[in-house]
């Protein structure tokens, strides 16, 4: 605490000169020995806030700062004995007034009238009572200095100060910002709230704009309710001010240079937003309500659909994008962040000025779902920052049926999680649309000023319950008794405007009638909609559309280019000291580039990235240990042992190379994978990779895998070329570090939705990664990547295997290594078990056993496998061998493919399966048992 106070004092030392220095010396003495300072000063210092007896802990500095500045300002420059004047009764009260001002800034929001229903139960806040600060009504006419208040005059009567504080901090805007650490940010917010008392004057034409948006919001809901009574629409009734908020946000952002706004939201108000903000044709929406088939795929419900359009603002055209989302309410938030980062990267916008992320949340989900915290945590990190996000919470004050605070959360507000990143939170009454407009503009300005997240808590209600088929009064009788009596937001605002003489009752009715007529005629109802949008604002997916699956695609690279890139990967700046083991890796890679040493996994993978960059494709790789690699095989980022500076050779291939983004991520799977999905769906020409620390850690992101990666194309026609590297292999490391749960991905495979591959050589990973970019088809790629194979002496490749004329092989046979006519038994397998099988066969000298590796399990390479099996004309048995338990792995999901091929070639052949026994856990936890099981399954596969 002491250092913080001193810092604040000395920031203002130039204002008060020696006075402040003298007071600082007194305070230092007081901290060491309170009895060593005069009594009047001890009394002043005793008033400062403390945290127990530990003066090293941090406390809010604003009260302390204002107290010291006041004392310094009023301190006479005479001898120290003269300082007793500060203890006069008026000056003591002045200090109390400053403390009271600070209390309103800190806690005023706790008594603000933010609930339009008036049902919100608030605890008493004694700090806001003048008597708490030893002030009484007798002091109301006394003039006091305002300290740091931005109220205009330097001093005012206490009653005026109180009135202005209540209007600013306890009205329909509850500003929560004093938890912010940065003093500059707090003062900036104060400078925006206090001069206008949180209620700036709104010009008549702006009032008309607000009423027009409320008319549209309410008009659509009424129309849908009458035309499609009882149909689920998750209407916005009770929260119509959201449309005012979004309209103000887009116009304000466009005025400040924003070119794109990407919005993520769940169900409530989505249809209203699509029609009244994005300009979706109402006729299209009506067709969805009537069940018309809109696409040739599975499709999705109407309140999950995304959309895009362009609207005009004062500073030009702005592209709007609404993210698709599943019913997992908050998972779209990190997807939006990824899409925004991709758009910013495309614009070379490292600050985040041109593309704005907006995430709209429900109050219960915002407080309850962990991905919200994960999304906030990524907001200022190198790999994931987007220049700040505007979070809009549609606060219904009730979940499906959960409305008691003690049941829905443990914090005071649903927005308290945002405090973890010092985000300001503006609670606002949804029935005061002018206040909603004000805090929205404030939020946009804050985000653009400080490039940080900001939260708008739009406190409202839901007039129809969870959905239109729900009867809410059964579980919330008191709330819905009040709602039945509650006038709509538009009705309240129209009455206000009529009383102000801004509009007549007839004009108000005419606005409602005109909007309904537009809906009935199927007309666009967004006046700012651009009918012929600027296509430069779009992501061009046309080169990637309409491609059918093909297994063969040449991915080789010129040998000389490979060697040139290999040498550049080994370049280390002069004076850059590399750690000893890393230096050996670099030295080995130099020999690999020269052809004097076989390529290992790390070198082949690095050459894949280098060649992709050389051909003009951006590369983005994130994950918890991607710089080094969890198993120390990659070392794409080198660390200077002298000063900890870093060097990334892949960033220094050529001056003209495209963007490389390679960052270790924070410890998250769900939000990070969702981010990378969003990025990949917005950057079709890039190789986008997420690598799990261990493959089974992807379990924490199962929502992303199920709802986006494997089904997004079928539901929403969203193409995605994301690559997932999931370390997989049974090495005796127990149940949590063995299996990437291959069976789960295979179970999700259908309609050529994803690719699932298990490469076993460096050349295979080289061609697999290159195929993902070079081929115009865009499908997610799931790679069961290795652990022990990263350094396996037999898992090597030559430069020639990476060179021109070669490609990824979905099936690797051995017909060139043995006489096919001698083979009586074929073992089919995937992954590293191949090397165990190969070595056991060599030990037993069994030349009648062939091993075929299936490197791509989906889409299953039936023709390639049939061709390989067809070479063996004297087969007597075929077995599938896997390391995983037989209720896991590829066995159940892939055996029908293999059996159909065998049956077509020889109906008398039957496929057998060999693996670990059926198990609930993925692997055993004892190395001895692991080795015993491995020995048994390998022997059984080879010997039968």
TrEMBL record:
Domain Transketolase-like pyrimidine-binding: 599-792
Keyword annotations of the record: Glycolysis, Oxidoreductase, Thiamine pyrophosphate
Source species, domain of life: Bacteria
Top EC group: oxidoreductase
Gene Ontology MF terms in the entry: oxoglutarate dehydrogenase (succinyl-transferring) activity; thiamine pyrophosphate binding
Cofactor section: thiamine diphosphate
GO cellular component: cytosol; oxoglutarate dehydrogenase complex
Pfam families reported for this sequence: 2-oxogl_dehyd_N, E1_dh, OxoGdeHyase_C, Transket_pyr
Residue ranges crossing the lipid bilayer per the database entry: none
Listed GO biological process terms: glycolytic process; tricarboxylic acid cycle
Reactions performed catalytically: N(6)-[(R)-lipoyl]-L-lysyl-[protein] + 2-oxoglutarate + H(+) = N(6)-[(R)-S(8)-succinyldihydrolipoyl]-L-lysyl-[protein] + CO2
Protein EC: 1.2.4.2
Similarity field: Belongs to the alpha-ketoglutarate dehydrogenase family.
Role according to the record: E1 component of the 2-oxoglutarate dehydrogenase (OGDH) complex which catalyzes the decarboxylation of 2-oxoglutarate, the first step in the conversion of 2-oxoglutarate to succinyl-CoA and CO(2).
Quaternary structure and partners: Homodimer. Part of the 2-oxoglutarate dehydrogenase (OGDH) complex composed of E1 (2-oxoglutarate dehydrogenase), E2 (dihydrolipoamide succinyltransferase) and E3 (dihydrolipoamide dehydrogenase); the complex contains multiple copies of the three enzymatic components (E1, E2 and E3).
Protein's recorded name: 2-oxoglutarate dehydrogenase E1 component
Source organism of this protein record: Pontibacterium sinense
